[in-house]
Amino acid sequence: MLEIKNISKSFYRKTALDDVSLSIRKGEIFGLLGPNGAGKTTLIRVINRIVEQDSGSVRLNGNLMTEKDLADIGYLPEERGLYKSMTVHNQVLFLGRLRGLSKKDTLAKMDFWFDKFSINDWRKKRIEELSKGMAQKVQFVCAVLNEPKLLILDEPFSGFDPINVELIKQELIEMRAAGKTIILSTHNMKSVEEICDRAALIHQAKKIAEGSISELQSAKKMGMYAVRFKGSMIAFVNALWTGFEVVDKDILGDDRFVVRVKMRGENSFQDLLKVLIGQIEIEAAWEVLPSMQDVFIDLVQPKEEVRDEK
Hints:
Blueprint: E1 2-11, E2 14-24, E3 29-33, H1 40-47, E4 55-60, E5 63-64, E6 73-76, H2 88-98, H3 103-116, H4 132-144, E7 150-154, H5 162-177, E8 181-185, H6 189-195, E9 198-203, E10 206-212, H7 213-219, E11 224-230, H8 233-240, E12 244-253, E13 256-263, H9 269-276, E14 281-287, H10 292-309
Parallel strand pairs: 3-8, 3-9, 6-7, 7-8
Antiparallel strand pairs: 1-2, 1-4, 4-5, 9-10, 11-13, 11-14, 12-13
């Protein structure tokens, strides 16, 4: 749906984006990851035509993007942009009209979202009276009011408590099921694992990785497996010999454990199971993939260490 090709952008000789290309498919949630200052927000602003790239192109459904395409895009910026002296009702009505909706349509969509989020009681409150999380809900409603085909969210979970984070995540999952395409720029790595289909990592203005969540995790796996079993911990360790290394364990009680094991040499998962069968009662065994936070750190840290040495 969205093709970002060879985008570069500099501000006062400082490179914000360096030849970045991405391909985002229709009906997926795409994670845009990177440290602060990596270039994520600049890329989002280029897509939204807030700033113009120095080179490269952005295509929507195969065609170069124009101002008209913005009617099909919803945008929740990292810097919240609500007018503090406005009431919630007037703020949503104002932004809906700016999006090109009629007053009647805006009010109908406002009623739908206010009912869904149980925020009807806030209508007469001024924005300055709201908590950060409450204002965030209002701005999310403003971003989806025009039923965008492409929704771009920059740090959407900041300011939310865990209950509201789950509420927004469920909304995004429902939108994906309805065929919407979502770009999610966030530092919340757990959310990326739970709801993103694919992701790209931007670091120091360059794209350094892109792929499905499982591909990104598999590329950094370290031969780690977990075994949940019932029996003697001593019997478990003795069965391993020197082909496997116990990394850590969780005691579940009643002689039940979860142990994480790292393979040595050419040993495989099947070899692990063979040496354990008959020694303990295996309840479950699985490969342990690195979290997206581990992937993120592994991709970013080595480059920073090399730079520091120089």
